[in-house]
Write a structure and sequence with these properties.
15 helices, six-stranded mixed sheet, 22 strands, alpha/beta, seven-stranded mixed sheet, binds NADP nicotinamide-adenine-dinucleotide phosphate
Length: 488
Protein backbone atom coordinates (compact mmCIF):
# COMPACT_ATOMS: atom_id res chain seq x y z
CA UNK A 1 0.00 0.00 0.00
CA UNK A 2 1.57 3.25 -1.07
CA UNK A 3 0.22 5.68 1.56
CA UNK A 4 3.17 7.15 3.42
CA UNK A 5 2.57 7.00 7.10
CA UNK A 6 3.98 9.88 9.02
CA UNK A 7 2.80 9.77 12.58
CA UNK A 8 2.16 13.31 13.83
CA UNK A 9 4.30 14.20 16.82
CA UNK A 10 2.80 12.89 20.04
CA UNK A 11 4.18 12.24 23.51
CA UNK A 12 4.88 8.59 24.39
CA UNK A 13 5.29 8.71 28.19
CA UNK A 14 2.98 8.22 31.14
CA UNK A 15 1.26 11.34 32.50
CA UNK A 16 1.33 11.24 36.30
CA UNK A 17 0.73 14.13 38.69
CA UNK A 18 1.11 16.70 35.92
CA UNK A 19 4.41 15.36 34.52
CA UNK A 20 5.35 13.23 31.52
CA UNK A 21 7.52 10.37 32.73
CA UNK A 22 8.80 6.86 31.98
CA UNK A 23 7.74 3.85 34.00
CA UNK A 24 9.95 2.76 36.91
CA UNK A 25 11.75 0.14 34.80
CA UNK A 26 11.95 2.30 31.65
CA UNK A 27 10.14 -0.41 29.63
CA UNK A 28 8.38 0.40 26.36
CA UNK A 29 5.86 -1.35 24.12
CA UNK A 30 5.41 -1.12 20.37
CA UNK A 31 2.31 0.32 18.70
CA UNK A 32 1.47 -1.23 15.34
CA UNK A 33 -0.43 0.11 12.36
CA UNK A 34 -3.06 -2.53 11.53
CA UNK A 35 -3.14 -1.44 7.86
CA UNK A 36 0.56 -2.05 7.24
CA UNK A 37 1.97 -4.03 10.16
CA UNK A 38 4.51 -1.23 10.70
CA UNK A 39 5.63 -0.29 14.21
CA UNK A 40 4.79 3.40 14.48
CA UNK A 41 5.81 4.19 18.06
CA UNK A 42 7.17 2.81 21.31
CA UNK A 43 5.26 3.91 24.41
CA UNK A 44 6.21 3.84 28.10
CA UNK A 45 4.93 1.07 30.38
CA UNK A 46 3.91 1.57 33.99
CA UNK A 47 4.96 -0.80 36.79
CA UNK A 48 2.94 -1.56 39.91
CA UNK A 49 4.79 1.15 41.86
CA UNK A 50 3.88 3.69 39.14
CA UNK A 51 0.21 2.77 39.53
CA UNK A 52 0.46 3.13 43.31
CA UNK A 53 1.94 6.62 43.12
CA UNK A 54 -0.60 7.64 40.47
CA UNK A 55 -3.42 6.69 42.83
CA UNK A 56 -1.78 8.79 45.55
CA UNK A 57 -1.41 11.76 43.19
CA UNK A 58 -5.06 11.59 42.11
CA UNK A 59 -6.09 11.39 45.76
CA UNK A 60 -3.99 14.43 46.70
CA UNK A 61 -5.53 16.44 43.87
CA UNK A 62 -9.14 15.56 44.77
CA UNK A 63 -9.88 18.16 47.51
CA UNK A 64 -8.75 21.09 45.39
CA UNK A 65 -10.44 19.87 42.19
CA UNK A 66 -13.73 18.95 43.83
CA UNK A 67 -13.93 22.37 45.47
CA UNK A 68 -12.68 24.39 42.51
CA UNK A 69 -14.88 27.34 41.64
CA UNK A 70 -17.57 25.88 39.36
CA UNK A 71 -17.03 28.41 36.61
CA UNK A 72 -13.31 27.60 36.43
CA UNK A 73 -14.02 23.88 36.13
CA UNK A 74 -16.62 24.51 33.44
CA UNK A 75 -14.18 26.74 31.51
CA UNK A 76 -11.49 24.05 31.59
CA UNK A 77 -13.88 21.45 30.16
CA UNK A 78 -14.90 23.84 27.37
CA UNK A 79 -11.24 24.51 26.68
CA UNK A 80 -10.65 20.77 26.15
CA UNK A 81 -13.53 20.72 23.65
CA UNK A 82 -12.08 23.70 21.82
CA UNK A 83 -8.61 22.12 21.60
CA UNK A 84 -10.08 18.84 20.33
CA UNK A 85 -11.85 20.78 17.59
CA UNK A 86 -8.77 22.81 16.67
CA UNK A 87 -6.54 19.72 16.46
CA UNK A 88 -9.02 17.40 14.78
CA UNK A 89 -6.89 16.81 11.64
CA UNK A 90 -3.82 15.78 13.62
CA UNK A 91 -5.79 13.68 16.08
CA UNK A 92 -7.67 11.89 13.29
CA UNK A 93 -4.44 10.94 11.56
CA UNK A 94 -3.01 9.55 14.80
CA UNK A 95 -6.17 7.51 15.36
CA UNK A 96 -6.27 6.09 11.84
CA UNK A 97 -2.60 5.11 12.00
CA UNK A 98 -2.95 3.21 15.26
CA UNK A 99 -6.51 1.90 14.89
CA UNK A 100 -7.19 1.65 11.14
CA UNK A 101 -10.60 3.34 10.75
CA UNK A 102 -11.12 5.70 7.79
CA UNK A 103 -9.95 9.18 8.62
CA UNK A 104 -13.46 10.63 8.14
CA UNK A 105 -14.74 8.31 10.89
CA UNK A 106 -11.82 9.27 13.12
CA UNK A 107 -12.68 12.96 12.69
CA UNK A 108 -16.32 12.34 13.53
CA UNK A 109 -15.27 10.49 16.69
CA UNK A 110 -12.99 13.32 17.83
CA UNK A 111 -15.65 15.95 17.20
CA UNK A 112 -18.16 13.89 19.12
CA UNK A 113 -15.59 13.71 21.95
CA UNK A 114 -15.44 17.52 21.88
CA UNK A 115 -19.24 17.61 21.98
CA UNK A 116 -19.14 15.32 24.99
CA UNK A 117 -16.83 17.72 26.84
CA UNK A 118 -19.14 20.62 25.97
CA UNK A 119 -22.24 18.73 27.09
CA UNK A 120 -20.62 17.77 30.39
CA UNK A 121 -19.26 21.29 30.96
CA UNK A 122 -22.88 22.44 30.80
CA UNK A 123 -24.07 19.49 32.86
CA UNK A 124 -21.64 20.44 35.67
CA UNK A 125 -23.89 23.47 36.28
CA UNK A 126 -26.96 21.24 36.57
CA UNK A 127 -25.88 18.77 39.24
CA UNK A 128 -28.95 19.60 41.27
CA UNK A 129 -29.75 18.31 44.70
CA UNK A 130 -33.28 18.13 46.11
CA UNK A 131 -35.24 19.23 49.11
CA UNK A 132 -37.80 16.75 50.34
CA UNK A 133 -41.00 17.76 52.19
CA UNK A 134 -40.25 17.34 55.88
CA UNK A 135 -42.18 17.55 59.21
CA UNK A 136 -42.37 21.00 60.87
CA UNK A 137 -39.06 22.28 62.29
CA UNK A 138 -37.11 20.05 60.00
CA UNK A 139 -35.48 20.35 56.55
CA UNK A 140 -34.52 17.36 54.44
CA UNK A 141 -31.79 18.08 51.91
CA UNK A 142 -30.30 15.77 49.29
CA UNK A 143 -26.85 16.71 48.01
CA UNK A 144 -24.86 15.24 45.12
CA UNK A 145 -21.15 14.89 45.72
CA UNK A 146 -18.21 13.65 43.63
CA UNK A 147 -17.12 10.14 44.50
CA UNK A 148 -13.35 10.66 44.58
CA UNK A 149 -10.58 8.99 42.61
CA UNK A 150 -12.04 7.41 39.48
CA UNK A 151 -10.33 4.79 37.30
CA UNK A 152 -11.33 4.35 33.66
CA UNK A 153 -10.30 1.40 31.47
CA UNK A 154 -11.10 1.71 27.76
CA UNK A 155 -10.92 -0.46 24.60
CA UNK A 156 -9.23 0.10 21.23
CA UNK A 157 -12.27 0.40 18.95
CA UNK A 158 -13.10 4.04 19.81
CA UNK A 159 -9.87 5.25 21.41
CA UNK A 160 -11.03 8.84 21.78
CA UNK A 161 -14.79 8.28 22.08
CA UNK A 162 -14.57 5.84 24.97
CA UNK A 163 -12.07 7.96 26.91
CA UNK A 164 -13.98 11.23 26.49
CA UNK A 165 -17.37 9.80 27.42
CA UNK A 166 -15.90 8.61 30.72
CA UNK A 167 -13.50 11.42 31.60
CA UNK A 168 -15.77 14.35 30.70
CA UNK A 169 -18.61 13.45 33.13
CA UNK A 170 -16.19 12.21 35.82
CA UNK A 171 -14.32 15.53 35.76
CA UNK A 172 -17.52 17.57 35.46
CA UNK A 173 -18.79 15.92 38.63
CA UNK A 174 -15.59 16.91 40.47
CA UNK A 175 -13.67 13.62 40.50
CA UNK A 176 -9.99 13.13 39.70
CA UNK A 177 -9.24 10.45 37.11
CA UNK A 178 -6.78 7.76 36.06
CA UNK A 179 -7.15 6.47 32.50
CA UNK A 180 -5.79 3.11 31.32
CA UNK A 181 -6.46 2.83 27.56
CA UNK A 182 -5.96 -0.29 25.44
CA UNK A 183 -2.36 -1.24 24.60
CA UNK A 184 -3.39 -1.43 20.95
CA UNK A 185 -4.31 2.28 20.77
CA UNK A 186 -2.46 4.35 23.39
CA UNK A 187 -1.56 7.21 21.03
CA UNK A 188 -5.01 8.83 20.90
CA UNK A 189 -5.09 8.82 24.71
CA UNK A 190 -1.62 10.38 24.80
CA UNK A 191 -2.77 13.10 22.40
CA UNK A 192 -5.81 13.74 24.64
CA UNK A 193 -3.55 14.16 27.65
CA UNK A 194 -1.39 16.65 25.73
CA UNK A 195 -4.62 18.60 25.40
CA UNK A 196 -5.36 18.33 29.14
CA UNK A 197 -1.88 19.66 29.82
CA UNK A 198 -2.31 22.54 27.37
CA UNK A 199 -5.74 23.35 28.81
CA UNK A 200 -4.09 23.77 32.22
CA UNK A 201 -5.55 21.11 34.50
CA UNK A 202 -4.09 21.20 38.02
CA UNK A 203 -1.53 18.51 38.84
CA UNK A 204 -2.92 15.05 39.61
CA UNK A 205 -6.45 15.72 38.33
CA UNK A 206 -5.95 13.75 35.11
CA UNK A 207 -3.49 10.86 34.94
CA UNK A 208 -2.59 8.38 32.20
CA UNK A 209 -1.19 4.89 32.75
CA UNK A 210 -0.09 2.57 29.94
CA UNK A 211 1.10 -0.96 30.53
CA UNK A 212 0.22 -4.47 31.60
CA UNK A 213 -3.55 -4.36 31.93
CA UNK A 214 -4.04 -7.04 34.57
CA UNK A 215 -1.29 -5.56 36.78
CA UNK A 216 -2.62 -2.01 36.50
CA UNK A 217 -6.24 -3.22 36.73
CA UNK A 218 -5.37 -5.32 39.79
CA UNK A 219 -3.85 -2.33 41.61
CA UNK A 220 -6.75 -0.06 40.71
CA UNK A 221 -9.43 -2.52 41.82
CA UNK A 222 -7.57 -3.46 45.03
CA UNK A 223 -7.17 0.15 46.12
CA UNK A 224 -9.60 1.54 48.68
CA UNK A 225 -8.62 5.04 47.52
CA UNK A 226 -10.05 4.40 44.04
CA UNK A 227 -13.79 4.73 44.73
CA UNK A 228 -15.16 4.31 41.22
CA UNK A 229 -14.25 2.09 38.28
CA UNK A 230 -15.70 2.60 34.83
CA UNK A 231 -14.88 -0.02 32.20
CA UNK A 232 -15.69 -0.54 28.53
CA UNK A 233 -14.54 -3.74 26.90
CA UNK A 234 -15.25 -7.45 26.68
CA UNK A 235 -17.71 -9.20 28.96
CA UNK A 236 -15.01 -11.60 30.21
CA UNK A 237 -12.73 -8.78 31.41
CA UNK A 238 -15.72 -6.86 32.79
CA UNK A 239 -16.72 -9.87 34.90
CA UNK A 240 -13.17 -10.16 36.23
CA UNK A 241 -13.03 -6.48 37.18
CA UNK A 242 -16.47 -6.70 38.80
CA UNK A 243 -15.26 -9.59 40.98
CA UNK A 244 -12.02 -7.85 41.86
CA UNK A 245 -13.86 -4.64 42.76
CA UNK A 246 -16.10 -6.54 45.18
CA UNK A 247 -13.28 -6.63 47.73
CA UNK A 248 -13.23 -2.84 48.00
CA UNK A 249 -16.95 -2.37 47.24
CA UNK A 250 -16.26 0.13 44.49
CA UNK A 251 -18.97 1.87 42.59
CA UNK A 252 -18.67 0.40 39.09
CA UNK A 253 -20.08 0.84 35.58
CA UNK A 254 -19.60 -1.81 32.91
CA UNK A 255 -20.15 -1.26 29.18
CA UNK A 256 -19.54 -4.73 27.73
CA UNK A 257 -20.09 -6.79 24.62
CA UNK A 258 -23.15 -6.75 22.39
CA UNK A 259 -24.79 -8.91 19.74
CA UNK A 260 -27.35 -6.57 18.26
CA UNK A 261 -30.38 -7.90 16.41
CA UNK A 262 -31.48 -5.90 13.35
CA UNK A 263 -35.03 -6.80 12.32
CA UNK A 264 -36.54 -5.99 8.94
CA UNK A 265 -40.33 -6.47 8.97
CA UNK A 266 -42.23 -7.06 5.74
CA UNK A 267 -43.76 -3.56 5.94
CA UNK A 268 -40.37 -1.81 6.30
CA UNK A 269 -38.98 0.76 3.94
CA UNK A 270 -36.39 -1.65 2.54
CA UNK A 271 -34.11 0.95 0.94
CA UNK A 272 -33.88 2.84 4.20
CA UNK A 273 -33.29 -0.41 6.16
CA UNK A 274 -30.50 -1.45 3.76
CA UNK A 275 -28.84 1.98 4.08
CA UNK A 276 -29.12 1.81 7.87
CA UNK A 277 -27.64 -1.68 7.94
CA UNK A 278 -24.66 -0.87 5.72
CA UNK A 279 -23.88 2.36 7.61
CA UNK A 280 -23.98 0.74 11.03
CA UNK A 281 -22.47 -2.63 10.11
CA UNK A 282 -19.39 -1.35 8.29
CA UNK A 283 -18.65 1.64 10.52
CA UNK A 284 -15.28 0.85 12.08
CA UNK A 285 -15.33 -2.39 10.06
CA UNK A 286 -18.01 -3.89 12.31
CA UNK A 287 -15.77 -3.54 15.38
CA UNK A 288 -18.48 -1.77 17.32
CA UNK A 289 -20.34 -3.04 20.38
CA UNK A 290 -23.64 -1.76 18.91
CA UNK A 291 -23.02 -3.07 15.36
CA UNK A 292 -25.91 -5.16 13.96
CA UNK A 293 -24.77 -8.77 14.27
CA UNK A 294 -27.87 -10.86 13.58
CA UNK A 295 -29.99 -9.63 10.68
CA UNK A 296 -33.55 -10.99 10.88
CA UNK A 297 -35.49 -10.50 7.64
CA UNK A 298 -39.17 -11.33 7.07
CA UNK A 299 -39.39 -14.23 4.61
CA UNK A 300 -41.63 -12.31 2.14
CA UNK A 301 -38.98 -9.61 1.63
CA UNK A 302 -35.81 -11.61 2.17
CA UNK A 303 -34.83 -11.89 -1.50
CA UNK A 304 -35.49 -8.25 -2.26
CA UNK A 305 -33.73 -6.99 0.87
CA UNK A 306 -30.70 -9.26 0.35
CA UNK A 307 -30.29 -7.89 -3.17
CA UNK A 308 -30.36 -4.29 -1.87
CA UNK A 309 -27.69 -5.23 0.67
CA UNK A 310 -25.47 -6.98 -1.88
CA UNK A 311 -25.63 -3.98 -4.25
CA UNK A 312 -24.37 -1.76 -1.46
CA UNK A 313 -21.69 -4.16 -0.19
CA UNK A 314 -20.23 -4.40 -3.71
CA UNK A 315 -19.61 -0.66 -3.66
CA UNK A 316 -17.62 -0.61 -0.42
CA UNK A 317 -13.96 0.23 -0.77
CA UNK A 318 -11.64 -1.58 1.63
CA UNK A 319 -8.17 -0.19 2.28
CA UNK A 320 -5.88 1.97 4.36
CA UNK A 321 -8.05 4.44 6.25
CA UNK A 322 -5.75 7.29 5.26
CA UNK A 323 -6.57 6.82 1.57
CA UNK A 324 -9.22 8.89 -0.14
CA UNK A 325 -12.48 7.05 -0.79
CA UNK A 326 -11.83 4.12 1.58
CA UNK A 327 -14.87 3.33 3.71
CA UNK A 328 -13.73 0.08 5.37
CA UNK A 329 -10.31 -0.16 7.07
CA UNK A 330 -8.38 -3.13 8.47
CA UNK A 331 -9.29 -5.21 11.51
CA UNK A 332 -7.33 -4.36 14.62
CA UNK A 333 -5.32 -7.60 14.91
CA UNK A 334 -4.60 -10.83 13.07
CA UNK A 335 -6.59 -12.86 15.63
CA UNK A 336 -9.75 -10.98 14.61
CA UNK A 337 -9.39 -12.54 11.15
CA UNK A 338 -9.11 -16.03 12.65
CA UNK A 339 -12.25 -15.46 14.73
CA UNK A 340 -14.28 -14.49 11.64
CA UNK A 341 -12.90 -17.40 9.59
CA UNK A 342 -13.84 -19.75 12.43
CA UNK A 343 -17.41 -18.42 12.64
CA UNK A 344 -17.85 -18.61 8.86
CA UNK A 345 -16.44 -22.15 8.65
CA UNK A 346 -18.82 -23.29 11.38
CA UNK A 347 -21.79 -21.57 9.69
CA UNK A 348 -21.11 -22.95 6.20
CA UNK A 349 -20.55 -26.46 7.55
CA UNK A 350 -24.01 -26.19 9.12
CA UNK A 351 -25.65 -25.05 5.89
CA UNK A 352 -25.22 -21.27 5.62
CA UNK A 353 -24.19 -19.81 2.25
CA UNK A 354 -21.66 -17.02 1.62
CA UNK A 355 -23.03 -14.68 -1.07
CA UNK A 356 -20.07 -12.30 -1.15
CA UNK A 357 -16.73 -12.02 0.67
CA UNK A 358 -15.85 -14.68 3.20
CA UNK A 359 -12.08 -14.35 3.07
CA UNK A 360 -9.06 -12.35 4.10
CA UNK A 361 -7.97 -9.84 1.47
CA UNK A 362 -4.44 -10.42 0.20
CA UNK A 363 -2.29 -9.11 -2.62
CA UNK A 364 -0.45 -5.89 -3.34
CA UNK A 365 -2.91 -3.42 -1.84
CA UNK A 366 -3.35 -5.35 1.34
CA UNK A 367 0.19 -6.66 1.90
CA UNK A 368 0.73 -6.92 5.65
CA UNK A 369 -2.54 -5.41 6.88
CA UNK A 370 -5.45 -7.21 8.57
CA UNK A 371 -7.99 -6.77 5.77
CA UNK A 372 -11.15 -8.84 5.39
CA UNK A 373 -13.68 -8.79 2.57
CA UNK A 374 -17.14 -7.44 3.50
CA UNK A 375 -19.25 -10.56 3.76
CA UNK A 376 -22.92 -11.49 3.42
CA UNK A 377 -24.09 -14.86 4.68
CA UNK A 378 -27.60 -16.34 4.28
CA UNK A 379 -29.36 -19.33 5.80
CA UNK A 380 -28.07 -18.60 9.29
CA UNK A 381 -29.75 -20.47 12.16
CA UNK A 382 -29.67 -20.64 15.94
CA UNK A 383 -27.45 -23.72 15.73
CA UNK A 384 -24.49 -21.70 14.46
CA UNK A 385 -21.75 -20.03 16.50
CA UNK A 386 -22.25 -16.74 14.69
CA UNK A 387 -25.78 -16.57 16.07
CA UNK A 388 -24.48 -16.48 19.64
CA UNK A 389 -20.94 -15.03 19.56
CA UNK A 390 -20.12 -11.37 19.01
CA UNK A 391 -18.41 -11.19 15.56
CA UNK A 392 -16.65 -7.79 15.69
CA UNK A 393 -16.04 -7.81 11.96
CA UNK A 394 -17.54 -7.04 8.53
CA UNK A 395 -20.06 -9.89 8.34
CA UNK A 396 -23.82 -9.67 7.70
CA UNK A 397 -25.49 -12.94 8.76
CA UNK A 398 -29.08 -13.12 7.44
CA UNK A 399 -31.71 -15.15 9.29
CA UNK A 400 -35.24 -15.35 7.90
CA UNK A 401 -38.37 -15.31 10.07
CA UNK A 402 -42.12 -15.70 9.63
CA UNK A 403 -43.96 -14.18 12.64
CA UNK A 404 -43.45 -11.34 15.15
CA UNK A 405 -43.50 -13.79 18.06
CA UNK A 406 -40.83 -15.91 16.42
CA UNK A 407 -38.50 -13.00 15.72
CA UNK A 408 -38.82 -11.57 19.22
CA UNK A 409 -37.94 -14.94 20.70
CA UNK A 410 -34.92 -15.23 18.38
CA UNK A 411 -33.79 -11.63 18.91
CA UNK A 412 -33.89 -12.04 22.69
CA UNK A 413 -32.08 -15.38 22.54
CA UNK A 414 -28.73 -13.87 23.48
CA UNK A 415 -26.75 -13.42 26.67
CA UNK A 416 -26.17 -9.82 25.53
CA UNK A 417 -28.58 -6.89 25.78
CA UNK A 418 -26.94 -3.73 24.47
CA UNK A 419 -28.35 -2.37 21.17
CA UNK A 420 -31.21 -3.56 18.98
CA UNK A 421 -32.80 -2.21 15.81
CA UNK A 422 -35.94 -2.75 13.79
CA UNK A 423 -37.55 -1.32 10.69
CA UNK A 424 -41.32 -1.15 10.21
CA UNK A 425 -43.93 1.35 9.03
CA UNK A 426 -46.53 -0.02 11.44
CA UNK A 427 -47.09 2.10 14.57
CA UNK A 428 -48.58 -0.76 16.59
CA UNK A 429 -45.45 -2.81 15.91
CA UNK A 430 -43.21 0.08 16.94
CA UNK A 431 -44.73 0.10 20.41
CA UNK A 432 -45.03 -3.66 20.87
CA UNK A 433 -41.62 -4.65 19.54
CA UNK A 434 -39.71 -1.90 21.34
CA UNK A 435 -41.33 -3.06 24.59
CA UNK A 436 -40.53 -6.72 23.90
CA UNK A 437 -36.83 -6.32 23.05
CA UNK A 438 -34.63 -7.06 26.09
CA UNK A 439 -32.01 -4.45 25.26
CA UNK A 440 -30.75 -1.19 26.75
CA UNK A 441 -31.20 0.65 23.45
CA UNK A 442 -33.64 0.30 20.56
CA UNK A 443 -33.29 2.03 17.19
CA UNK A 444 -36.60 2.23 15.31
CA UNK A 445 -36.10 2.98 11.61
CA UNK A 446 -32.81 4.47 12.74
CA UNK A 447 -29.34 3.22 13.63
CA UNK A 448 -27.86 6.39 15.10
CA UNK A 449 -28.38 5.72 18.79
CA UNK A 450 -25.32 7.24 20.45
CA UNK A 451 -25.45 10.95 21.33
CA UNK A 452 -23.93 13.08 24.11
CA UNK A 453 -27.47 13.79 25.41
CA UNK A 454 -28.98 10.28 25.45
CA UNK A 455 -28.38 7.25 27.72
CA UNK A 456 -26.04 4.58 26.35
CA UNK A 457 -25.71 1.17 27.97
CA UNK A 458 -26.98 -2.36 28.23
CA UNK A 459 -28.63 -5.07 30.28
CA UNK A 460 -27.80 -8.75 30.91
CA UNK A 461 -24.18 -9.63 29.97
CA UNK A 462 -23.75 -6.26 28.26
CA UNK A 463 -23.26 -4.75 31.71
CA UNK A 464 -24.86 -1.95 33.68
CA UNK A 465 -24.61 1.76 34.22
CA UNK A 466 -25.28 4.39 31.59
CA UNK A 467 -23.01 6.79 29.75
CA UNK A 468 -23.96 10.14 28.21
CA UNK A 469 -26.78 12.51 29.09
CA UNK A 470 -27.54 13.40 32.70
CA UNK A 471 -27.51 9.63 33.34
CA UNK A 472 -23.77 9.63 32.56
CA UNK A 473 -22.90 12.24 35.20
CA UNK A 474 -25.01 10.47 37.85
CA UNK A 475 -22.61 7.49 37.59
CA UNK A 476 -19.86 9.70 39.05
CA UNK A 477 -21.81 11.10 42.00
CA UNK A 478 -22.73 10.01 45.50
CA UNK A 479 -26.02 11.01 47.09
CA UNK A 480 -25.86 12.50 50.58
CA UNK A 481 -28.94 13.08 52.71
CA UNK A 482 -28.82 15.86 55.31
CA UNK A 483 -31.60 15.82 57.95
CA UNK A 484 -31.78 19.20 59.68
CA UNK A 485 -33.87 19.96 62.77
CA UNK A 486 -33.71 23.72 63.15
CA UNK A 487 -35.92 24.14 66.24
CA UNK A 488 -36.48 21.89 69.29
P1 LIG B 1 -10.89 -6.10 26.26
O1 LIG B 1 -9.91 -7.12 25.82
O2 LIG B 1 -11.85 -6.43 27.32
O3 LIG B 1 -10.02 -4.82 26.67
C1 LIG B 1 -10.62 -3.63 27.10
C2 LIG B 1 -9.67 -2.91 28.03
O4 LIG B 1 -9.47 -3.71 29.17
C3 LIG B 1 -8.29 -2.63 27.45
O5 LIG B 1 -7.81 -1.42 27.95
C4 LIG B 1 -7.48 -3.78 27.99
O6 LIG B 1 -6.12 -3.47 28.09
C5 LIG B 1 -8.09 -3.90 29.38
N1 LIG B 1 -7.90 -5.20 30.02
C6 LIG B 1 -7.76 -6.42 29.45
N2 LIG B 1 -7.62 -7.36 30.40
C7 LIG B 1 -7.66 -6.72 31.60
C8 LIG B 1 -7.56 -7.14 32.96
N3 LIG B 1 -7.38 -8.41 33.28
N4 LIG B 1 -7.65 -6.19 33.92
C9 LIG B 1 -7.81 -4.89 33.61
N5 LIG B 1 -7.91 -4.44 32.35
C10 LIG B 1 -7.84 -5.34 31.36
O7 LIG B 1 -11.78 -5.59 25.06
P2 LIG B 1 -11.31 -5.05 23.65
O8 LIG B 1 -10.94 -6.22 22.81
O9 LIG B 1 -10.32 -3.95 23.80
O10 LIG B 1 -12.67 -4.36 23.12
C11 LIG B 1 -13.65 -5.07 22.49
C12 LIG B 1 -14.82 -5.36 23.40
O11 LIG B 1 -15.31 -4.16 23.96
C13 LIG B 1 -15.98 -5.97 22.66
O12 LIG B 1 -16.54 -7.02 23.40
C14 LIG B 1 -16.99 -4.81 22.57
O13 LIG B 1 -18.31 -5.21 22.42
C15 LIG B 1 -16.73 -4.10 23.84
N6 LIG B 1 -17.18 -2.71 23.74
C16 LIG B 1 -18.29 -2.36 24.44
C17 LIG B 1 -18.77 -1.06 24.36
C18 LIG B 1 -19.99 -0.64 25.14
O14 LIG B 1 -20.21 0.55 25.29
N7 LIG B 1 -20.79 -1.55 25.66
C19 LIG B 1 -18.12 -0.13 23.56
C20 LIG B 1 -16.99 -0.53 22.85
C21 LIG B 1 -16.53 -1.84 22.97
P3 LIG B 1 -5.03 -4.07 27.07
O15 LIG B 1 -5.51 -3.78 25.70
O16 LIG B 1 -3.83 -3.30 27.41
O17 LIG B 1 -4.94 -5.52 27.38
Amino acid sequence: MSTKLELPTVKTQLFIDGDWQDGALQKTKAVENPATGEIVAQVAQAEIEDTKRTIKAANRAFPEWSKMELKDRVDLLHRVAQLLEEKVEKLAKIMTIEQGKPVAEAKAEILSGAENFRFNAEEARRIYGETIPAPNKRVYIVKKEPIGVTAAITPWNFPMGMATRKLAPALAAGNTVILKPSSDTPLSALALFEIFEEAGFPRGVVNLLLGNSSEIGGELTASDVVRKLTFTGSTAVGQKLYQESGETLKKISLELGGHAPFIVFSDANLESAADGLIGSKFRNNGQVCIAPNRIFVAKEVEQEFTKLVLDRVQNLKVGNGLQEGVNVGPLIREDAIHKIDHQLKDATERGAKILIGGERLLGEDYEKGNFYAPTVLTGVTEQMLIFHEETFGPVIPIISFVSDDEVIKLANDSEFGLASYFYTENLERVEEISNALEYGMVGVNDTVISHPETPFGGVKHSGFGRENGHFGVEEYLNVKFVALKYRQ
